[in-house]
Design brief:
This protein has 146 residues and is α+β, with helices and mostly antiparallel strands. It contains 3 helices and 9 strands, in the order βαβαβββαββββ. It has 2 domains: 7-72, 2,3-Dihydroxybiphenyl 1,2-Dioxygenase, domain 1, CATH 3.10.180; 89-145, 2,3-Dihydroxybiphenyl 1,2-Dioxygenase, domain 1, CATH 3.10.180.10.
Length: 146
């Protein structure tokens, strides 16, 4: 039986650059870093001679983001659209999405749109949100609740 969420994983090209991106742009902290190879990694991932580096980042809320760089076998760059089967995204709650958008965009976040507002039937502002990609093309949603 499931107990809780554990982590979300993103495949990245350069783990050091991705750690820098998520710590500087999103303010996440590095919770741990490792390297995997051998029978456990090969069996788990289904690749003979699997060798990877990984890092866990967190915001202190329990859920972590795992960044994974495959050293072997190396993968190709996928171009997932938001609506492609198999595409996924990670959503973050933010304060002051307008300021975050401006700062993050200047530091490598690739937004699809500026923040867009959602109102209820009475015109009350419920949220502002935007979709974006990190430097490796992983989809991110940013949401400010009101």
């Amino acid at each position: 039986m499931l107990k809780s969420f554990f982590h979300t994983g993103f495949i990245v090209k350069d783990i050091d650059k991705s750690i820098d991106f998520y710590t500087s742009v999103f303010g996440m902290s590095l919770a741990g870093r490792g390297e995997r190879s051998g029978p456990f990694a090969e069996t788990l991932l289904g690749y003979s001679e699997a060798h990877l580096q990984n890092a866990f980042l967190e915001l202190g809320e329990g859920h972590q983001l795992e960044l994974i760089q495959y050293l072997t076998p190396t993968g190709s760059r996928a171009q997932f659209e938001k609506n492609d089967l198999g595409a996924s995204h990670l959503a973050f709650l933010v304060e002051d999405i307008e300021t975050f958008y401006t700062q993050a965009k200047a530091n490598g976040l690739k937004p699809v749109n500026p923040p867009v507002s959602l109102h209820d039937e009475n015109g009350k502002l419920l949220r502002k949100a935007l979709y974006a990609q990190d430097p490796d093309g992983n989809w991110i949603e940013l949401v400010e609740l009101f």
